[in-house]
Design goal:
The complex is a heterodimer of chains A (252) and B (867).
Chain A: E1 8-13, E2 16-21, E3 24-29, H1 35-49, E4 58-64, E5 67-73, E6 77-79, H2 80-86, H3 91-106, H4 116-125, H5 131-143, E7 149-151, E8 160-163, E9 168-170, E10 177-179, H6 181-194, H7 198-212, H8 216-220, H9 223-231, H10 236-246, E11 248-249
Antiparallel strand pairs in A: 1-2, 2-3, 3-5, 4-5, 6-8, 7-10, 8-9
Helix pairs in contact in A: 3-7, 4-5, 4-9, 6-7, 6-9, 9-10
Chain B: H1 11-28, H2 33-49, H3 51-62, H4 67-85, E1 92-97, E2 102-108, E3 111-115, H5 123-134, E4 138-142, H6 148-164, E5 172-174, H7 180-189, E6 192-195, H8 199-206, E7 212-214, E8 220-224, H9 230-242, E9 252-258, H10 262-271, E10 275-276, H11 279-289, E11 290-291, E12 294-296, H12 304-311, E13 322-325, E14 343-349, H13 352-366, E15 369-375, H14 382-391, E16 394-399, H15 403-408, E17 442-448, E18 462-464, H16 469-479, E19 485-489, H17 492-496, H18 501-510, E20 513-517, H19 526-539, E21 543-548, H20 550-564, H21 570-573, E22 595-600, E23 612-616, E24 623-627, E25 635-637, H22 648-667, H23 673-696, H24 701-721, H25 725-737, H26 741-756, H27 775-785, H28 793-810, H29 824-839, H30 853-865
Parallel strand pairs in B: 3-4, 3-6, 4-5, 6-7, 8-9, 8-15, 9-14, 10-13, 13-14, 15-16, 18-25, 19-20, 19-21, 21-22, 22-25
Antiparallel strand pairs in B: 1-2, 2-17, 11-12, 23-24
Classes of the chains: A alpha+beta (252), B alpha/beta (867).
């Protein structure tokens, strides 16, 4: 097999860079990045691939210049986020499309994926919140219905590529788990809010609840939990906002 | 003792603690009521004494609520609970009824896992521990991390006092460093869970796999009706809503006020220091109290002015309640939620119906099963109260009562059990719907000793016998009973042959008006009975005389019912029952219009002394057996003079019928010493005199008289002991192939005796008196009484069967069903249906051997071919 040439840098994150290499995309992780996390991400994506969802296929997991890298198909096209920005008059249409893709994803199952509940329990413990709030959040999580739907964990318009082939691809599966779809929805809602787009957040949640026949309160019950999990990222400008969302109490 | 305790801060130590509590509980389970009551008193007293320091600790630690109100809660949890249960028996035998052989024994459940909420961290702990001690249970407390110190201190105080009074050491324990993991562990390991807290905790309790008594959230609406005492209503709500800064789950969350008194109510609220938020302020408070549909932890149990401050609203520091006048009762309205603070929603309702709609929705929003409250005039507005009671899906419905105090019981109503754990029923996903108390923490063993059914002996109040007794007995109609109009029921043959003349002559002589209905055929039909009843309705008799064989007497009984109770549904009366004392249908009272006299003209059916009647629906061919003691004739006149001219065939068939009555009544599970004597005597007479009566007819009046008596005596036996599967099968055989009833019985009886006479039946009948299969011994007793001989029971039964065969032969009964001209193919094609119907016949229930349908089929087949 010929060596992979990293032609064009398409995205850069603190811990990784994404390059294009012909019809492949190469995600190169920084040196010192957990091998287990890299392999887990590749494994997650491979499991989701098996469900038949339109996602870039894993081609290879390899080391490039001593750095762990995941090689996938490269999808030509624009992200839904770009399209929303370029055509604001079509926001409604795009948001509908966005919700439809998410609902389609939630209809799939991948029984070997990690469990959302385990992940959330871990995140609550690591959130740095005081013992009382953690106890409340753990209790809240414990009481939520246990499902086994595919949850993306970072489902936002920048992770949808509207392919030139007419197919909408879902990318970035590093946070994928299986669990309650409303948690995934709450997470998306939170991401809109954190991006300073409360209007889109409302639009999104209303559409989701309508299309999936879900009560708004049911999604809302997850908000303190996803907010706590976001606290783990330790982003100082988000902190006060997230603390307000987590400091709630169950009725008695 | 505290120094012996290990601090429980992880699952390993918790596991050890659980073992310790379990050990202590084993000892505690052996304590007497006296020991337990002493411990209960000491524990309650200690908690009571510590009420103020514990209240202070709770407020300081949680930053919620009001010290003085928490003192009341602690006081309540110790004093009221002690008072309510001090005399309650919770150990050993708590109830006994020797007559009925029933005894109830209370046993502890074992180890209780108790989850304590932040809102009542000391009082709930005291409450649960006291209940545990009174019921000899061990208890492990899981405090909330926000209130752990005060909950633990309350537990420690109660435990120390209990141990000092003799309780086993370590009977109460607690988690020192709470975590959900440990809470879940005690819920999994304990024997029962007393969970108080939010829906999350309650759900966790219910999903732990252990029985849980959990309670859920409340969202109490309070309707103030136009008829309400406004002063009382408003001040009750203020009193209740401000109590411990609104932290009682039964506390009012919304006042729904009727339009015509709205302004007055509002003025009263204002006058008493409540603050009405303006539109802008409402919006600010909305965003403060609820975040993403969940309650903001910062406002719980805070005073009104502090919540206002958090929302950026300026109100006087003395403000009692923040009131938001809002319209929507949907969850999108923040004020429609439970608020656990002195914040109240107020709604305007144009009508009481609208108020009910709103209250119903608020309960649905978040208080299913908890509490609802109404203020109205209970004297003039009973109807409204009923509507309210009917509509609210809550387990506590409080009237003119502050709901915080009202819901927990014994403060504003003294029959509502005091409790700090309020069951919300299935509406709230709970296993209990009442206020939780000691009874929920006991296993009650019921010791039920075997008892026998009461039996009875019932027969007509008057039975007249001997030849020529008829006209003498009828004298009573005038002289004793004062009857004026007699309706005679008989069959065409008897009427045309002048059998009724002896009756009508006597009636004419006494000047009693009468009429005769004679359109009765063998196997009387419902149609004929209806015709007779209609004639009765126009004639309006005060006495009915049935004269004839079984058909006329049965038809007359049905007419009697239709005459007395034209409204009664015949199908209901014909409904099959397993036990005549437990039947679903209550048979109507008979004899209010007419006195019933039965005069048999054949010796066999016994209908003159039985509570039975069989009628056929001519449209469907279905026979309906009716049975109820209401159908028992008032008087039976057994005059052999009416039987002298019986033809041979009738003499044989009815005589054999009487024999099977006596045989089945003797073998029946319901047989008693009373019926036994009658059955044996009847059999002895029949074996001796039936051949004579058959052979000699009217020339042997003694034999006729003996058979007349035997028939009535056998009737008395089976009127009380009932029959068996021979009659079940005979009923269906007769109906399917038009065989006379007596003949059908004669063809089947020996197969039934063989079937019953075994010590190892496939299934024996179910009746407490029938303690082991012993039909063979019963038949042997008959053989002995008849002097048939035999070395053992088996031989005796064989001799009995032979004796019956001989008798049948002597009176001209053929050997088997086939000989009566019934085609084999036809018989086989109907066999299965006939067997199933016979199985379901009313007579089957008394048979000593419970027959399988296949066994009935087998007996039919054997009887078909005979030997």
């Amino acid at each position: 097999m010929k060596a992979i040439e990293l032609e064009e840098l398409i995205a850069e994150r603190p811990a990784k860079k994404v390059y294009r290499s012909g019809d492949m995309a190469v995600k190169v992780f920084n040196e010192g990045y957990s091998k287990a996390d890299v392999l887990n991400e590749a494994l997650n994506q491979a499991r989701v691939e098996e469900t038949g969802l339109p996602i870039p296929k894993i081609l290879e997991v390899t080391k490039i210049d001593g750095k762990w890298s995941i090689v996938t198909q490269f999808i030509k096209g624009k992200t839904l986020a770009q399209l929303m920005e370029e055509n604001p008059q079509k926001l409604n249409e795009y948001m509908n499309r966005f919700v439809d893709i998410q609902l389609m994803m939630h209809s799939k199952k991948a029984p070997l994926l990690n469990k959302l509940r385990d992940k959330m329990n871990r995140k609550i413990s690591e959130s740095g919140l005081d013992a009382t709030t953690r106890y409340e959040l753990h209790t809240r999580l414990e009481s939520m219905p246990k499902h086994t739907k595919i949850c993306h964990g970072d489902f936002n318009p920048s992770n949808i590529i509207v392919g030139d082939d007419g197919v909408d691809y879902i990318i970035d599966w590093s946070h994928a788990t299986q669990g309650n779809a409303s948690a995934d929805t709450a997470r998306t809602y939170l991401l809109f809010c954190l991006a300073g787009e409360p209007g889109k957040a409302e639009m999104y949640l209303n559409l989701f609840c309508k299309k999936s026949d879900t009560a708004r309160q049911y999604v809302q019950q997850w908000l303190p939990i996803v907010a706590a999990s976001q606290l783990v990222k330790g982003n100082p400008q988000e902190r006060e906002f997230l603390l307000r969302w987590t400091n709630v109490i169950d009725y008695e | 003792m505290e120094n012996k305790r290990i601090i429980i801060d992880g699952v390993d130590k918790l596991r050890l603690a659980l073992d310790r509590v379990r050990e202590a509980q084993k000892t505690f389970a052996t304590y007497t009521q006296e020991q337990v009551d002493k411990i209960f008193l000491a524990a309650a007293s200690a908690a009571n004494k510590a009420r103020i320091p514990l209240a202070k600790m709770a407020v300081e630690e949680t930053g919620m609520g009001v010290v003085e109100d928490k003192v009341i809660k602690n006081h309540y949890a110790s004093e009221y609970i002690y008072n309510a249960y001090k005399n309650t028996k919770t150990c050993g035998v708590i109830e006994e009824d020797k007559e009925f052989g029933i005894k109830k024994i209370a046993e502890p459940v074992g180890v209780i896992a108790a989850v304590i909420p932040t809102t009542n961290p000391t009082s709930t702990a005291i409450f649960k521990i006291l209940l545990a001690l009174k019921t000899r249970n061990g208890i492990i407390i899981s405090p909330h991390p926000r209130a752990k110190n005060c909950t633990i201190e309350a537990s420690r105080i109660v435990l120390e006092a209990a141990v000092k009074a003799g309780a086993p050491e370590g009977i109460v324990d607690w988690i020192d460093v709470p975590s959900l993991e440990m809470t879940n562990m005690i819920m999994r390991e304990a024997d029962i869970i007393l969970a108080t807290g939010g829906p999350g905790m309650v759900k966790a309790a219910y999903s732990s796999g252990k029985p849980a008594i959990g309670v859920g959230p409340g969202n109490t609406p309070a309707i103030i009706d136009s008829s309400a005492d406004i002063l009382l209503a408003v001040n009750s709500i203020i009193h209740s809503k401000t109590f411990d800064n609104g932290m009682i789950c039964a506390s009012e969350q919304a006042a729904i006020v009727l339009d015509d008194i709205y302004d007055k109510v509002k003025d009263e609220f204002k006058k008493r220091g409540c603050y009405f938020l303006n539109e802008k302020e409402i919006e600010k408070v909305r965003k403060t109290i609820i975040i993403n549909g969940a309650l903001n932890a910062k406002i719980v149990g805070q005073p009104a002015h502090k919540i206002a401050e958090l929302a950026g609203v300026k109100v006087p520091e003395t403000t009692k309640i923040l009131i938001g006048e809002v319209e929507s009762v949907e969850l999108t309205e923040e004020f429609a939620h439970e608020k656990l603070s002195p914040v109240l929603a107020m709604y305007r309702a144009k009508t009481f119906a609208e108020a009910l709609d709103k209250a119903e929705k608020l309960v649905e929003d978040g208080g299913y099963g908890h509490t609802a409250s109404v203020y109205l005039n209970v004297v003039t507005e009973k109807d409204k109260l009923n509507q309210f009671t009917e509509r609210m899906k809550t387990c506590r419905i409080l009237v003119n009562t502050p709901s915080s105090f009202g819901g927990i019981g014994d403060l504003y109503n003294f029959k509502l059990a005091p409790s700090l754990t309020l069951g919300c029923g299935s509406w709230g996903g709970n296993s209990v719907s009442d206020n939780v108390g000691v009874k929920h923490l006991l296993n009650i063993k019921t010791v039920a000793e075997r008892r026998e059914n009461m039996l009875w002996f019932r027969t007509p109040e008057k039975v007249y016998i001997k030849r020529g007794c008829l006209p003498v007995a009828l004298d009573e109609l005038k002289n004793v009973l004062g009857k004026k109009k007699v309706f005679i029921v008989t069959d065409t043959f008897l009427y045309e042959n002048g059998f009724t003349k002896v009756v009508t002559d006597k009636l004419d002589e006494m000047g009693i008006t009468h009429t005769t209905f004679y359109d009765v055929a063998p196997d009387p039909t419902l149609d004929s009975a209806k015709k007779g009843a209609s004639a009765m309705h126009s004639f309006r008799p005060d006495c009915i005389i049935a004269l004839g064989g079984g058909s006329a007497m049965d038809a007359a009984k049905i007419m009697w019912v239709l005459y007395e109770h034209p409204e009664a549904d015949f199908m209901d009366m014909a409904m099959r029952f397993a036990d005549i004392r437990k039947r679903v249908y209550t048979f109507p009272r008979m004899g209010e219009k007419a006195y019933f006299i039965a005069i048999p003209t054949s010796a066999g059916t016994g209908s003159e002394v039985t509570p039975f009647a069989v009628i056929t629906d001519e449209k469907t061919g279905i026979k309906y057996p009716l049975a109820d003691y209401e159908l028992m004739p008032d008087m039976a006149i057994v005059d052999p003079n009416l039987m002298m001219e019986m033809p041979k065939g009738l003499t044989a068939a009815s005589g054999i019928d009487a024999m099977t009555h006596a045989l089945e009544a003797y073998a029946s599970m319901l047989a008693t010493d009373y019926t036994d004597a009658l059955a044996l005597k009847a059999l002895k007479i029949i074996f001796e005199y039936l051949p004579r009566a058959y052979a000699n007819g009217a020339n042997d009046p003694d034999a006729r008289e003996k058979m007349a008596n035997a028939s009535t005596i056998a009737g008395m036996a089976f009127a009380n002991a009932f029959l068996g599967v021979c009659h079940s099968m005979a009923h269906k055989l007769g109906a399917f192939f038009h065989l006379p009833h007596g003949i059908a019985n004669a063809l089947l009886i020996n197969e039934v005796i063989k079937f019953n006479a075994t010590d190892t039946p496939t299934k024996m009948g179910t009746f407490p008196q029938y303690d082991h299969p012993h039909a063979i011994a019963r038949y042997a007793e008959i053989a002995d009484y008849l002097g048939l001989g035999g070395k053992n029971e088996k031989e005796k039964v064989e001799n009995l069967i032979k004796k019956i065969e001989d008798l049948k032969e002597k009176v001209g009964i053929k050997k088997n069903i086939k000989e009566y001209g019934i085609d084999e193919k036809d018989f086989l094609s109907k066999l299965d249906e006939m067997a199933e119907q016979a199985f379901d016949d009313q007579c089957t229930g008394a048979n000593p051997r419970y027959p399988l349908m296949s066994e009935i089929r087998e007996m039919y087949l054997k009887a078909y071919h005979g030997k």
